[in-house]
Amino acid sequence: MADFPIETVRGKFPALSLTDHGRRRIYLDNPAGTQVPQAVADAVSRCLLSTNANLGGFFETTVAAQQVVDDAHAAMADFLNAASVEEIVIGANMTTLTYHMSRTLGRTMKPGDEIIVTRMDHEGNVSPWLQLAEDLGLVVRFLPFDEQSWQVEEAALKALLSEKTPLVALNYASNLTGSINRVQALTAIARQAGALVYVDAVQFAPHGLIDVQALGCDFLICSAYKFFGPHMGILWGRRDLIEGLKPYKCRCSSNGLPERFELGTPQIELMAGLTAAIDYFADLGAAAGEAGSRRQRVAKAFEVSIAYENALAAQLIEGLSDIEGLIIRGITDPERLAERVPTVSFTVEGIAPETIVRQMNAENIFLWSGHNYAWEIVHQLGIPAEQGVVRIGIAHYNTAKEIEETLESVHRVIAMLRQQRA
């Protein structure tokens, strides 16, 4: 942890120095959205002020705006290791893109086909497929996660696959338990059975290097605002597949890739911020000693940030484990930290999660309670959906001191609430 340039990193994020009535802020709401570096805000502002035009013309601002769009697709191709910029589709958000792609893929399906979704995913990769099944007369098969490993097991997937399965919707990492699935192995099983694989990588993208070519999946989706960028979603689709799909689009709009899947006027200023977010990772990798391509620098950034985040996660899990009646809903074994992202959720016997979170929010420690759209997880675990969990999410700009203060608050708040009940 000592080798990670935490003070330099924190200096790039203006929000981290803000106070409220003289009280510091601790941002542990990161699974719902991270803060942004100054460079991201500057890029958005610069685009609005100097390259603000629609696309397709011949004058200076429209030409410059097209370059912003092209740069964003190239940056995301590097971030995901896509084979081509034409495989990168940028849109409003993960859920909107998934609804759009699910309807497009629905044109290739027929009544009686079986779609597999997991009980581990965010609703953004569940509800679109459930509603598609309702519209088309498809069958939905639910793939549970193992409550000992906290992961989707290969044997469970094999048991659900059949010759009627056109698609499997998986998630890379859980936004509630933090568990990372073995996506490459699961994808290989699904593809061998003839199914397409659609991967939700929203929660994994801030915490691990994604290589879509190595994973072997057909689609992968993530959200820029989870990895220090603006509010937008990015979908990668395997080119030989997406170029044969017929999307829902305006008759007169482009049939080229990826434009045919990018509906309406693009969020050009946010694309400028997206490129800046990827370059933030690349700069972090360069500071850690990598002088190669942007992809290589991004890989180095994740190498150093994963080690740093895992140490913070270990500190948090160890501190929470001391509290009687507190149950961490996810992997707690220190030897398995590489199998989870640093998102830690828990419940406390006899105390509503919101009660804990309200008290901690009052201390300017920002975190969430509730089901956090992990609807199937709370139901599989028997957790009341209206209560959910307390969720603490670490990003690589957090510090050991912040985790220490957070643990002190958790201990203090739970003790106070128990005393009030007594």
From TrEMBL:
Name by which UniProt lists this protein: Cysteine desulfurase-like protein
Domain of life from the UniProt record: Bacteria
Pfam families: Aminotran_5
Signal sequence region: none
InterPro entries: Aminotrans_V_dom, Cys_dSase-rel, PyrdxlP-dep_Trfase, PyrdxlP-dep_Trfase_major, PyrdxlP-dep_Trfase_small
SUPFAM superfamilies per the UniProt record, alphabetical: PLP-dependent transferases (SSF53383)
Domain Aminotransferase class V positions: 26-404
